[in-house]
Amino acid sequence: MVGSIIDGKQHAINLRERIKIATDNLISKYGITPGLAVVLVGTDPASEIYVRNKGIQTKEAGMESLEFRLPEDTSEEKLLKNVKDLNENQSVNGILVQFPVPEHMSQQRIIETILPSKDVDGLHPVNSGYLASGLKGMVPCTPQGSALLIKETLGDLSGLHAVVLGRSNLVGKPIAQLLLKENCTVTVCHSRTKNLKEVCLSADILVAAVGIPELVKGDWISPGTTIIDVGINRLDAPEKGPGKTKLVGDVDYNGAIKNASSITPVPGGVGPMTIACLLLNTLIATCEQNNIEFSKLGF
Ligand code: NAP
User: Fold this and answer.
1) Could you tell me if 156 and 88 lie in one domain?
2) String of b and e for 38-58 (b: at least 16 CB within 10 Å)?
3) Catalytic amino acids?
4) Mean pLDDT by 10 residues, the chain (299 residues)
5) Quick one: 186 and 227 in the same domain?
6) Ligand 1 atom at minimum distance from 233 CA
7) 291 within some domain
8) Do 101 and 145 reside in the same domain of the chain?
9) Of 26, 215, 217, 252, which has the highest C-beta tally within 10 A?
């Protein structure tokens, strides 16, 4: 039996529609428009695209979008001053510094300079601490989007064995925490894990976030597994023409779909959920900062 495709694009459209309705309610009931500030240092083409898309979707959701573009040679001190100004700015509810930043800057110092209450990327140690403790806080967007796709696909996750490939602070660890919160039995794998194929074969849910193109093969998947492929890898695609490229995930999609019960494609799976969850975090942060109950917005 061939597995079904988890359409992340459609899930993200549905989520953004609900966010728009809740944002409209926030504006009409309380006169508050959520504001999201995105800071981009340098001119990395992929980051430029992400930032542009974030701006467009922020405005579509009825929120205020502020963009700060700084040259590549900006000093870390100047960037941190910019972040501190945004911390103070009452019309800014969420702050995101687009990573990667140039090598002369410390990503960790930047993360720790953003006020935890405005940290819509969910990377501040205060927020990762809340998540690890099972408490309310800002949850990183890609893990949050992945967990939503899993829940919308499977419903109750209690007792299911979730195998997470990757232990980064950005993706692997927070996904593992979220699935633990949903009462999964969670196994986290990394570059030193032995018998990776056998561990994958024991999964009810397999989340791949390693950054290695098509690492997970079709015969690593037991029948009925739900697969969330977080990986985004750009490969040369001479078959499409000279100089052309294509995106692939960390899972061999064509091999895996033969055994999986459902799988996210790349592109069009987890990726679109990331910005939708950024908007959700911005809305939640706005409510928290203004002592408004999120549940009253009809979300
Ligand atoms: P990362 O920081 O490089 O972490 C990769 C993780 O994979 C590490 O924990 C590493 O283990 C583990 N790993 C490496 N080789 C492995 C192997 N052979 N077997 C098992 N585990 C292995 O990457 P990341 O930031 O988490 O991102 C992972 C992927 O997700 C990338 O493709 C990235 O582009 C993608 N991504 C997508 C989105 C989205 O919006 N869809 C967002 C963020 C990231 P060690 O800890 O032992 O080194």
Assistant:
1) no
2) bbbbbebeebeebbeebeebb
3) 54, 98, 121
4) 93 98 98 98 94 97 98 98 98 97 98 98 98 97 98 98 98 98 98 98 98 98 98 96 96 97 98 97 98 94
5) yes
6) 32
7) no
8) no
9) 26
